[in-house]
Amino acid sequence: VQDKKIAITLFSFPPDKGNIGTAAYLDVFGSVHKVLQGLEREGYNVGELPQTAEELLEEVVHDKEARFNSPNLNIAYKMSVPEYEEHCGYQEDLHENWGAPPGHLNSDGQNLLVFGKEFGNVFVGIQPTFGYEGDPMRLLFSKSASPHHGFAAYYTYLESIWGADACLHFGTHGSLEFMPGKQVGMSADCYPDQLISSIPNIYYYAANNPSEATIAKRRSYAGTISYLTPPAENAGLYRGLKEMSELVASYQGLKDNELRATAICNSLVEKARQCNFERDVSLPEEDCKGMGREKMDDLVGKLYKKLIEIESRLLPCGLHTVGKPPTAEEAVATLVNIASLDRPEDGGLKSLPRIIAESVGKDIDDVYRSSDMGKFEEVDLLQRVTFAARDAVTAIVQNSVNQEGRVE
Prior knowledge:
Layout: E1 6-10, H1 28-41, H2 53-60, E2 75-80, H3 81-87, H4 95-98, E3 111-119, E4 122-126, H5 136-141, H6 149-162, E5 166-170, H7 191-196, E6 201-206, H8 210-220, E7 222-227, E8 232-234, H9 239-254, H10 258-274, H11 293-312, E9 314-316, H12 328-339, H13 352-359, H14 364-372, H15 376-398
Parallel strand pairs: 1-4, 1-5, 5-6, 6-7
Antiparallel strand pairs: 2-3, 3-4, 8-9
Helix pairs in contact: 1-2, 9-10, 9-11, 10-11, 11-15, 12-15, 13-15, 14-15
């Protein structure tokens, strides 16, 4: 494999707004650095590899905020117009939209510029912008649209001049697969076919976007490798929401004391109004004193349920790095949610909350229904079941970490 040449292609994501070397949910340069290290272990020639992802970024783009029109990008190759015309057999088809080469995109006025950096037999290149940044839908829906000369020159360079044995498109997503042409069954007149030509196309694509990954497969002949979205963590509570949670806990401990329970309920209603809960829960206008124990329980239960919903929402935690497992803390919230699903297709495998609920003589479906109705005791039981599931998963994960605290 030492003689094989791999072209890693980076994007600006979103295509019309993003900085160089960005992709959905992905730490691109951290991931590229990991991939280069993996290629080196497998015997590929990666030359003098930068020690860190930051050094890699500096060598390729020189500026972490660089965009597609940045003057700081590293120029890997200057392609003369005669060389471009010799190697790009379809370049005349682009004249209708972009005029004669070299054009004004990826050009110094005389030559077509290919941005990137070589590391031994690995080229880390930057896919040119698609050219219609002010009107991106035109590229997708106009039959007369076409890639610009700079875009064509990039893929011409990879195949005909640099001699790539494979191209690794890095992350969700670039513009190649969205170039004009048929939707399925590409022909020689379709731009994705002409651009990728005979280069084997490997594509890292986010696991949560199979629809566009399918487009990459059928329109640019990509073999896709799914990467995970970042580990999720629970949103938690803060400020007024945290104060509400503390009031609920106080009510739970003092609800048998009518005087104290009423005072806590009034405070909870006032705080709920401050936090705009009246949109989700019907709050009483009068003092809670005349409500009675059962109605107060129902009111507090409904507010408690809403707080749990907010607290347990999953938020992405940072960016995913290819080849870098999550920490134990990062993995827990995601695994708790996976463990909360029944698997009837796997021999009737029960979810962890169902098993825990059954251990106290409850059916988790009944608990869910009663909790949705705001029944205080059932809302509290569901919360305790959730905490128990989280503690169980945490214990398992803690037994599966390496010395760096990452899940093996």
